[in-house]
Amino acid sequence: MATNAPETMSSLSPKRNVLASWGVNVAIAFTALRTNLMRSLLTMLGVMIGVFAVTLAVAVGNGAAEAVTDSVNRFGSNMAFVIPRPDDNQEFGPPRRTRERGRLTERDLRAIENEVPNIRAVAPQLREAIEIQVAGGSTTTQAVGSTPGYGVVTSQLAQRGRYITDSDVGSAARVVVLGETVVESLFGEIDPVGQKVRLNDVPFIVIGILEAKGSTFGDDGDDTIVIPISTMRQRFVGDQLAGPYDLQFAFVAFQEGVPLDKGKDDIVKVMKARYRVKEGEVTPFTVRTTKEFVEQTNQITGILQAVLVSIASISLLVGGIGIMNIMLVSVTERTREIGLRMALGARKSDIRNQFLVEAAVLCTLGGTVGLILAWSVGLALSNYADFPVPVGLGTALGAVIFSAIIGLTFGGWPAVRASRLSPIEALRTE
Amino acid sequence: MASPAPLERNAMTADGAHPLVETRNLVKTYVLGGETIRAVNGVSLTIGHGEYVAIMGASGSGKSTFMNMIGCLDVPSKGTVLIDGIETGDMSTDALAGLRNRKIGFVFQQFNLLARTTSIDNVAVPLIYAGLDTATRRERATAKLIDMGLGERLMNTPAKLSGGQQQRVAIARALVTEPLILLADEPTGALDTKTSEDIMAIFEELNASGITVIVVTHEDEIAQHAKRRIEFRDGEVIEDVAVENRIIAQPREQGV
User: Fold this and answer.
1) Residue A8: its chain B contacts at CB < 8 A?
2) Which DSSP symbol is given to B114?
3) How far A342 CA sits from the closest chain B CA (Å)?
4) What's the CA dihedral at A159, A162, A163, A166 to 10 degrees?
5) CB contact under 8 A, A347 and B98
6) Most CB atoms within 10 A, among A182, A223, B57, B90?
7) A78 by DSSP, 3-state: which?
8) Measured between CB atoms, does A5 come within 8 Å of chain B?
């Protein structure tokens, strides 16, 4: 008798249809949720708010990072900026000499263009806020004095009319290319190309309209005008500059695929030689790249996102505790049912799974609603507030899976407690 | 409808080579308020295949505790229970769950049906734990309910059924896994006399078809239907006799 016992035992445990029992558990879960509808909805609300907050926090962070990358890409991604300012960001450098001033001239830029390899275009710049006057009114905008290279570097050429040319620069011509925002505010429906305007009372001819850029973070890329750099120097900013060839700013765009770190090193090397900067001395100029800019900004938005998500996670945690609370209530209420199911052959794992599935269903439903809400708010913000809040597929999947995990985590203990009940004790419960 | 194939395990075990239920020196003690109570105090007995046994005794006599142990719902403090020759003492809780599922059908005084759940789904519960698929579960549950004369009540929830009907759903549920033993704990305790008679008629029929029926009751009249009567007092068997002048319950018109 003892010898054939194991054989008989195994006949008691035929292969069970696992999928079928999960399906049953989902059905039981929905019945339980329907039975206590209000309670279930309130519990779901907790998870819903949590998932909503976390999803939106993730999306806001992603949106900020996306906006940075986007604005950089729109501006031209493979680029270095040269600024006539002592580089106070140098590590281990000696203290700055007090009277040291920044240097950057057109000759420096020409040297860079000639000596640094793989440059696509350079754009020297002088910038000034200038009032544009027409017969019907006036507006003040950011004027950029530059060369034809500026259009290449910023990928913003003329959509109509023409861009400034080398001969405009050579002759310091009084010609201007207008951004769309400026056109709209001054001309409305009238074609401005060929029209006369006054810039700070100096007469100019409109030669073209810039391609539309749109705006990023409320910064309107079309609220600008471009004039020849020579004209800018002669007419507007010459007296503010230290030398006749000084620049306020320069862009150096590299060919696609050229490593920016190498490009930056090359520029620094050329500039250091020109200003005879010795080892360990602070350079009178600063070189930054779009890559550094994106990295720095992403670091900041990353921290911002982490803080936001942490705060939002607290509400998800509270939602999870709500789930645990309600599952404990549910287990207590249904102790007799648990006893009955055990008497009818339910194993520990059957009971545990039943309550786990119930918790997971609660959380996943709440989480899905929260996700849909976050997605809607994100869409509204993207469309109406001009701030991208993308709830992507990854975020969405993550949110739903995460809420199911919350359910399993916080539903786990009540479920295990239920499965450890003794069948007879549970059956005796009134 | 083609009758569903019987669950395969019965072919292997229903050989009748050993007693269906065997207890050896069964003891159950509780500690209550620092005092040890021997609810069942050294009971050894055997119940064979096809028997119809009434377990009698006043409340507190140990009859329910004894029943819970042979039903594998409760674990003995000492001694052993063998079901169909299988030693249950060293079985895991999951193995015991499997044993209950396949060999024992329970009928309770309070019916213990799941509320807001149809007759079919109630009857199909044990089949979930037997691991059958939905279609098979429904098919077998329906067949058992029709056997119990509830073909018209398949989709009713317990709230829409009379007490007698509810108990018949419960009996269908107990029988749906084709168990060897039907364990009924005060099955008529919540029913009127007429309905009780119907339930006893069903038990009579089931026993005639070969199922071992064990009824726990404190009512002499109910015990009088059984073939053997075991009486408990203070945790011990004081009487174990064949029933004389048995009452044979007559099946009434179905559909109360």
Assistant:
1) 12-13, 84-86
2) P
3) 7
4) 160
5) yes
6) A182
7) coil
8) yes
* Tokens 């030398």 belong to residue: A243
Does B8 contact chain A (CB < 8 Å)? yes
Which helix H or strand E contains B160, and what residues bound it?
A: none
What are the chain A neighbours of B39 within 8 Å (beta carbons)?
none
DSSP A118: T
Q: Report the residue from B8, B13, B125 with minimal CB separation from A8.
A: B13
Beta-ladder partners of B86: B83
B18 vs A: CB within 8 A: yes
| pLDDT of A274 over the 80 cut | yes
How many whole angstroms separate alpha carbon B164 and alpha carbon B252? 12
Question: Nearest residue of B to residue A342 by CA position?
Answer: B97
Tell me the two tokens of residue A189.
């429906």
In whole angstroms, give the CA distance from residue A340 to residue B179: 17
Distance CA A334, CA A339 (A): 9
A309: amino acid identity, one letter: V
The verdict on B245 touching A (C-beta cutoff 8 Å) is: no
A278 touching B (Cβ < 8 Å): no
Nearest to A12 among B93, B99, B106 (CB): B99
Please indicate whether, in this complex, the C-beta atoms of A17 and B74 are within 8 angstroms of each other.
no
Q: What percent of chain B has pLDDT over 70?
A: 91
Distance CA A209, CA A211 (A): 7
Smallest Cα–Cα separation from A350: which of A341, A363, A361? A341
Q: Which percentage of chain A shows pLDDT scores above 90? A: 45
Torsion of CA B58, B59, B60, B61, to 10 degrees: 30
pLDDT of residue B234: 93
Query: Mutual orientation of helices B119-130 and B163-175 as an angle, nearest 10°?
Result: 20
ipTM at complex level:
0.90
Q: What chain B residue is nearest to A18 in terms of C-alpha separation?
A: B131
| A278: DSSP letter | P
Computed over every residue of chain B, the mean pLDDT equals: 89
- Can you give the C-alpha Rg of chain A in angstroms? 34
Residues sharing a CB contact under 8 Å with residue A394, sequence separation 6 or more, in sequence order? none
pTM of the model: 0.72
Task: Please indicate if any CB of chain A lies within 8 Å of the CB of B118.
Answer: no
Alpha carbons B82 and B181: distance in angstroms, whole number? 13
- Chain B hits for A17, CB-CB cut-off 8 Å, are 131-133
User: Do the chains contact at A17 and B106, CB–CB below 8 Å?
Assistant: no
Query: pLDDT tier at A155 (50, 70, 90 boundaries)?
Result: confident
Spatial distance between the Cα atoms of A123 and A289, rounded to a whole number of angstroms: 14
Helical residues (DSSP H) of B105-162, grouped into ranges: 119-130, 134-147
Interface mutation target, options A7, A11, A12, chain B, most CBs of B under 10 Å: A12
Supply the mean pLDDT for chain A.
Answer: 85
User: A26-35, A107-116, B170-179, B198-207: which has the minimum mean pLDDT?
Assistant: A26-35
pLDDT digit string, tens, across residues A55-103: 998 888 888 888 888 777 777 678 899 988 887 655 444 445 544 677 8
Distance CA A207, CA A197 (A): 11
- Express each pLDDT in B110-119 by its tens digit: 999 999 899 9
A261-271 pLDDT per residue, tens: 899 999 999 99
**What six digits make up the tokens of A292?**
């550094």
- For A161-170, what is each residue's pLDDT tens digit? 999 999 999 9
d(CA B221, CA B186) in angstroms, rounded, equals 12
Helices (runs of H) and strands (runs of E) counted in chain A: 14, 12
pLDDT of residue A216: 63
Residues of chain B found within 8 Å of residue A13, distances taken between Cβ atoms: 95, 98
For residue B154, the distance in angstroms to the closest alpha carbon of chain A comes to 18
